[in-house]
Amino acid sequence: MTKARVGSVRPLWPELVGRAGERARIEAAVTDAGCRLVLIDGEPGVGKTRLLEHLVERAHAAGRTVLAGSATEFERLVPFGMYVDAFTQLSDGTPGADDLAEAALRTLLSAGAADQGQLDRYHTYRGIRALLTHLAADHGTVLALDDLHWADTPSLELTEFLLRRPPAAGFLLAIACRSSVIPPVVCDAVARRDPRVIRLSVAPLDEDAAASLMPSDVDPRRRRLMYRVSGGNPLFLQALLDAGDTTLAELADGRPGATLALEQTLLAVLRRELDQLTPTGRRAAHAAAVAGELASLVVISHVAELDAATAAAAIDELCRQGLGTLAGARFAFRHPLVRAAAYDTCGASWRVAAHARVADYLRRNDGSLALLAHHTERCAEHGDEQAARTLADAGIAYLNSAPATAARLLREALRVLPERDDLVPYRGQLLTGLARGTGVMGSLAESRRILHEVIHLPHDVASAAVAFSSVISRMLGQLDEARALVSAQTRRAGQDRRVRAQLLVELAAVAMLRADPDSARQHALEAVGLVSKTTDPALAAAAYALLALACLQDGDITAARTHSRRAGCLMDSASDTALVPHVELVAPLSWSEISFQRPADAARHLARGIDLSTMSGRSYAMPYLLIVQARQEARAGRLTEAIDIAEHAVAASEYIQSSETLAMARCVMLLPVLWRDGVRPAMTLADQIAAAGPGSAWWQAMAYVSVARVHLASGRAEPGYPLPSVLSRDTEVERLAVQSIRAGAEGDVGTALARSAAAIETADGLAYHLGTAYDARARALCGRDDLAGAAAAAQIAAERFGESGAVVERGLAHQLLATIYGRMGDAAPCRAEIGRAKAAYKESGADWLAGQLARVERQLAARGPRHAARETALTTRERQVAELVSQGLTNREVAERLQVSQKTVETHVARIFSKFDVRSRVALARRLAGQGDLPAIG
Predict the structure, then answer these.
(1) Residue 398 and residue 94: Cα distance in Å, rounded?
(2) Which of 124, 135, 134, 133 has the alpha carbon at shortest distance from 157?
(3) Would strands 141-146 and 171-178 be described as parallel, antiparallel, or unpaired?
(4) How far apart are CA 931 and CA 860, in angstroms?
(5) Model confidence pLDDT, tens digit, residues 46-103
(6) pTM for this one?
(7) Nearest to 578 by CA among 611, 623, 540
(8) Of 254, 250, 288, 286, the residue nearest 269 (C-alpha)
(9) 291: closest CA among 236, 238, 365, 235?
(10) Which helix (H) or strand (E) is 893 found in, with range?
């Protein structure tokens, strides 16, 4: 970059005056192999760069490999600029590191190559980390990044990646930046108070230290005045050395101009330095400021429109005046503020022409696309097709590695592109790319608006736009629109196999969400047939993943297992780059793997998918992946993790404004919140789902089940959420189980038994479904007072839940068994089952359920073995009265129904309450329905 490179230019002050403490801590960081991060922060000119130079010098002396890069405010839109700077220096000056540095540069610069549009950030970041790990293997590596506050977004993201996932031991990241703009990820690392992190907040020099930097012949009065004006800032002291006494007095006494910030004051001083140059010297300074890191003698000569000899003399003048130095053949300003002053004073129209000359130089010399786009962006005019194609090439190349940059460049390319009929297809390609970049960054509605400008263009342009538009419509819950768009496009003739397969995969995804497994299966099978004739394992994996889920929805478990394993193998064989465009479809694959009790496969695929989604910037895919991950954590009984991940999915959905995934995220959070935190927060969440539920029929069925279970746990009999009109077989078991339990709670034992039997028949041999069905069966049998049958069914439920890895549900089944044994008067097995339930709740963090269990345990202990005998000693008349009371009839209504006196009914009710050890009609109704002290439904 154009700042004097760390460690490559002689420092402004030969000694680090007044920095003994900072030097000692730097020495400790360099010699301590465990130190991970050194943050040097302070105000402009206070000496951050000089301290970073000292760290680099000490690292070199300690034998560590050093990479040093810096950012500037003028190239902050060039992706990976400061890392390219760092690895360029490594290849230039470190023996034995040339090959590694060149490999890193190829990795970074390929993000800007027009033929590398599929490069993703995950691949880039992993490659850089692997190189740094290799470099650190022998004596350790130091990566020094100066002026991180000016870094481009991809450089910041790569820095965040290295902080969160650092290379092997021996790697030290040293950062210098302004205190007011420390990047959040660096703030987080410092805030954790990790002993491996050192922060050096550089303060201004005291008066004695500042005095030692001034010439010895400066009189005391002027010395004090300079200190007062500079505030002890070393750079400001240097800039003010030649300021007149009048200027110093005005600045010190608050006269006009004294209200300027220190940085503005320094710029004014620097402009006066530039004014003292000859006209040729100023032109060379202006050219160097525009050229930036390209500011070699040849480039300055070209940009300044000077012959070689005149340009060389002008650069010598800049060096004599102390404005900068030559590092090899390149000129570097002594400080970014010097370059800023030169850039600001060169004149707006001359600056535009100068950028055009730099762009011309880069084109003729096959320069970096990143830098070519940077300079083209600053000089392009409407109608310049060459400029538009340059900006578009860079924008398309950056879609996966730097989507914000891509969107900006594509907008500019579309602005510049001529309005010609022959360029309409090309404009459509750019609009599709812009929509992708916009969607990746989370603006789904804006992305869809852009896509609607493209979908009526010729099919080869429109197909990609339609497929992505359907993805966005899915995220917004608008499935009818998604199906109509993609169906119309698939009917258009002319697509090649791969394009048609992509459209069919999208149609299968839409059908799956609509709970239409027949259509989903048909589309996925056709996509599999087409994609088998291509060499795209990622697209094939996506097709098989949806086919597996369609078969699961349809109850064809054998086929679903086969297709799920095939999808997993294909996904494992696909490269990261190939998988990125289909990364959201890792979610249906992992969903099927969870259903088929392959948690390790699901966890591996989800971790890869989330990493790829994060590093490729595909924010629209993240909610789907997090929702499935939250479901897996809840199934495994890691409730806190499940809630945290679901909350992340909620935040991700809100970021991209996806109402559909927001509702889905709340659904997967609902039961973990109930089990851990209790009825009240769960009811709040359930009410939010009832107010804004999912738009897809498949998720409506899951929302129905989850909300109903919360209502049952709270004692509410009403459903709380409407049952969708379209149902798939995979959600039928839980729906039947919930309806069975609700019927039992309402005293309808016959319906409870019928629905639980249907649930068992529908379970298709899946362990979790069998556990759910037998749990409902046990509760229904309790309502019929078939306690032996209930115990057998609850035992099967506990075994099936254990087999499926469902920790909390297994605990609920054990608690149900404890209650049944308590009613039977079997104390020993009752205590054993309570112990098993306690262990499951403790393992999973189900605090609310644990509290409920403790209450049940006390009640069972208080009743003792006599409870069962009392409970079953009802007379025929008492049984009649109890059943009518549990149905909600008043004493008078019961008396009329049985044709006895109201007083007789009151006597019977009192005896029934005593025998059942209850205090209310609601409790009696639950006892008769097999509920009583049964565990909360979850």
Answers:
(1) 30
(2) 124
(3) parallel
(4) 14
(5) 888 889 999 999 998 888 888 888 887 766 667 788 888 888 777 555 555 556 666 6
(6) 0.65
(7) 540
(8) 250
(9) 365
(10) helix 891-898
